[in-house]
Fold these 4 entries.
Entry 1:
Amino acid sequence: MSSTMTLTGRLTGTPELRFSAAGVAVAAFTIVTSRRVKDQNSGEWSDADTTYWDCKAFKQLAENICASLDKGMEVVAVGRAVQESWEDRQSGAKRSKIAVRVDAIGPSLRSATARVEKTSGGGQGRQDYQQARAESSREGREDPWGSGVPGTQAPATGGWSDEAPF
């Protein structure tokens, strides 16, 4: 069982949008949180308890995040902590980390304003991805010497997979 958590912090970079092999949108981003403390002797402010939170969101929320949020923005995110496990490719060692699956996120209005626009929820990004993938596959079949990617010399066959890399 996982508890809901709320993070208030800043995006360390622009959220990255990718699509799974099944066409599901996935947004990956990092939120940094810290607490401001005042040194009683010097009177100066500094950050304390700084934590970097790896976050992921899925489907329409992922697409909306990437269309709306950018590096440096202060955000308020609600999600749950999950443990991600994988095997290191180089050493074969098992690794894990705690990440946040974001259920809702928006800009903090403490020092900014925002204009909200309702989306149709049609998954336009997924449709664009599937159309680009189909066109790329078609180009690869029509050009036996090309990879379907301009500027590359790799053949269309011989180990290249039609599967998305994630």
Note: The beta strands are 4-11, 16-19, 25-38, 45-58, 74-87, 94-107.
Entry 2:
Amino acid sequence: MAEAERIIGTPDIPEAAGAEPEQSDGKSAGAGAGTERPKGRRRIAVLFAVAALAYALDLVSKLIVVAKLEHHAPIEIIGDWLKFDAIRNAGAAFGVGEAFTVIFTVIAATVIVVIARLARKLYSLPWAIALGLLLGGALGNLTDRIFRSPGVFEGAVVDFIAPKHFAVFNLADSAIVCGGILIVLLSFRGLDPDGTVHKD
């Protein structure tokens, strides 16, 4: 949490995003507030829109898979290279750590809380997209862990995308991985979530 706060930055005012300092003149100060505050709100809107889209796609795909594909033969999409094969995964993304379902549930819930808490300091569009992907993916798999069998917080996640010689995964896993990759790229470029750019 402390590292996340360091990246986001402590100021919760538009100046943290590189805006001009407030002038003593009331008109100038009002103009700055009018241009920067809505920008921050738009970034938050993008974050939650991306999260909602990722969550909806994951939820709908899993409902279809459970209804049409589970307990049936896999469907070949690209020969043996890509199939749709419904399985239940009690572990983390890509079937890792099936003995720690409750722990992964707590981690996913923590990620959601952290992203929601830090969203108010978000002024970067690329970071809004990246965090939205993480949030949507985490919500998608957390929904499975809460509402699917064998029980609350121990539910098995529905996976169905099965590339050859690779683990079976779902759209939530894909969103999480894409969001993580984007965050790494943004960090390498020195772009912080508050919109500032730094060079180490």
Note: DSSP finds five helices and three strands in the chain.
Entry 3:
Amino acid sequence: MFGLDEEFWLGIVALEGLLSVVALIGLIVLGSKVRKLRKAHRQLVGETGVPALEDVLELLHRQVSDVRQRQDELNDRLAKQDKRLASLKGRVGVHRFNAFSDTGSDLSFSVAIVNDQQDGVVITGIHSRDQAFLYAKPLDKGQSAYMLTPEEKTAIIQAMQKE
């Protein structure tokens, strides 16, 4: 049989074999994890052509910063356009009326052309049998330096009710 020295050495060999099997299993597990990490890295880095993740993150950070800056510029332009659009005289109200009882028809009119702040103009045409008169009055916040008739006020109200 084996002597003490032989049993000792046999135990050492068995232990080394067992450690080798454990190391081999560990290598297989680590290899699998490395493959998964490489796959995840390829998905994360993608087709950027940049191998280092830090460089990819820096590139993405710059791109996000550029997008934010562009968005701020567009928001500023949009605010200016909204302000400009609100100042345009785009609301129109038309009120027809009979200025004289002897004409028998609604041939006279008032047309108001205003913006959101009620700045603009009101134009009134008075029609009679023999002649016609045309008046224009500037508007500032719905008021004029000239006296507004009820028909002109009606035209202004109609214009402001339009969307």
Note: Residues 4-45 form the longest helix (42 residues).
Entry 4:
Amino acid sequence: MSQRFTDGLREENRPTWDEAVGHRFVQELLSGDVDDAVMSNYLIQDHRFLDAFVTLLGSAIATADTFEARLRFGRFAGIICSEENTYFLRSFEALNISEALRDRIPDTEPTGGFAALMREAAQTRDYVAILAVLTVAEWLYYEWARMRQGPLPENFVHAEWITLHDNPAFAEFVEFLRNELDRLGADAAEVARDFFGRAVQLERQFFDAVYAQNDPRDAGTPRNTRADYAQEEN
């Protein structure tokens, strides 16, 4: 049996993929040991993706070549705009992160980069480019979430982020994305490799960045933004 196209993409990016899936943040989240400051930084930045991500899903709906695919993307967009967004808002409240505080905190470089990649893929109106970014965003998260062993963490902020990415419906959606990219990617392999590879790099960098910041609830702004580096160098 020949290798799936998506398996080949993952193998081409295997070192970085494994670094992301096995990242310190993932390990601490799965064990329930991730510090509140780190989780706060992570959630503030991850919530910034929703606008660009919904835009990407809209482009997937517009460019998909079958009605069934459009239905699948539409249903998933509904989950992102309801269940997942509600999780973020409940978590911000539990972590004492106000909307005003979130607004004061700038994007990290990986956050800005990933949002830009999502918008770039959406603007291409190329279904394969869109699929490549979506597949990384969802498949990589499914892989780390399903590594959990033993009971879920007691804190719902940790537990629900895991279960949002490790449940039968999500597993089916990841498989749908992979099947779509398997079906069409070989005929646009250069585009698929480009967007897939850049997305994997940004996923790993995104996890790294949440440890390069102070508790946002203490200072109101994170450390090690590009402005901070410039100040430190002077």
Note: DSSP finds 14 helices and no strands in the chain.
